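Submission checklist for the structure archive. All mandatory fields must be present; incomplete records are returned to the submitter.

[x] Identifier: Prenyltransferase alpha-alpha toroid domain-containing protein
[x] Organism: Aphanomyces invadans
[x] Residue count: 291
[x] Sequence attached
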Amino acid sequence: MPANEQPTSAKSLPTDNWPTSTTRLQHETESLCTSFFVRLETLPQHELEQLQAAGFLNDRFEVRLLREKHVPYLVRGLEYLPPGFASMDASRPWFMYWILHSLELLDDEADVAAFASRCINTIQRCWCSQLENKGGFGGGILQLGHLATTYASCLALAIIGTAEAYAIVDRPALLAFFLSLKDPETGAFRAHDHGELDVRTTYCAISIAALYGILTPELTFGVVDFVKACQTYEGGFGPFPFQEAHGGYNFCAAAILSILDGWDAIDEDALVVRLDTIRSYGAVCKLELIL
């Protein structure tokens, strides 16, 4: 969609004449967000010029991203976080991944390089071999290895992309960590030792294994069958079999199928119908993968 094109009027999500607290909250959220959607061509010239003077529009009166403000905001997150973030101590790798990835998308290679050494040092200290649980990256120093923070750590290192960054990943130990979390009955992966098991955690393991060249037959055994079992009557994917479809799990399932070339195992037509149905409803809806 062009930068200056505004969203078309959207239909509200259907309630099947059976409203619930969830559908009421959905409608309230849609109504709140829709009020902020204004077509630029409906604004008077002086308001367009005010938006342009503030930097929100370019010289062609098209919406522009405020890169010059986003970059300093992101860089501050790699320096020091305010006390309110103390509760997020177990999310250190996520902060690094989110920020480094954002800087990469903004083509800010200089700041990625400037913080590379500090990020590598922090991520290295999150490696869990010292806890004798077969490796993996935890959310912080001396914390339990977890597939989600391992995913974030490995992607942050890949964004940095230096030999030093790649060298801190002990690939045999990482493979052993993944295998230790693989469920022999379903083929899926647990988030951590005795943790939850779903499409999300399985995506974390499979995607990082593919990225780091440790995607072995033992690791992939049963994974496509597990994903297939997670497809619902709606066509989308739930977290595990017999659960409601959700946009986030659609993404994870589709990514796994793409990596493992497993599209033939699922009902693609039903998935496309599901995605098209969700896309057509609401100003605010669950994130869905558009194939």
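[x] Structure attached
Curator remark: The chain has a mean pLDDT of 88. The two ends are 16 Å apart (CA to CA).
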